[in-house]
Amino acid sequence: MPPPKATRPTNEPDPITVRVPTALRMLGLSRSKFYLLLADGEFEMIKVGRCTLVTVASLHRFVNRQSSEGQT
Q: What range(s) does the Helix-turn-helix domain occupy (predicted)?
């Protein structure tokens, strides 16, 4: 039996930004498709030194837009 996944403590706040590899896993997109969408302004990016962060809110907005467009 595999060991249980590590979980965040319940008192720890949800992240407001994630690094690109985490955003890719969250969305299930390839790196190249993600960067094309980023260049089109689909996501909000923040640079901190050499670290690229993506706002989780922009990931949620993207998914909501895509699901809304799919329902029309």
A: 22-67
Contacts of 23 (CB under 8 A, 6+ apart): 34, 43, 54, 59
- Report yes or no on 54 lying in a domain: yes
CA 55 to chain centre: 7
Residues of the domain holding 31: 17-71
On whether residue 5 sits in a domain, the answer given is: no
Output the pTM of the full model: 0.78
Nearest C-alpha neighbor of 40 from the set 67, 21, 72, 65:
65
Q: What is the tens place of the pLDDT at every residue in 52-65?
A: 999 999 999 999 99
CA distance 6 to 47: 28
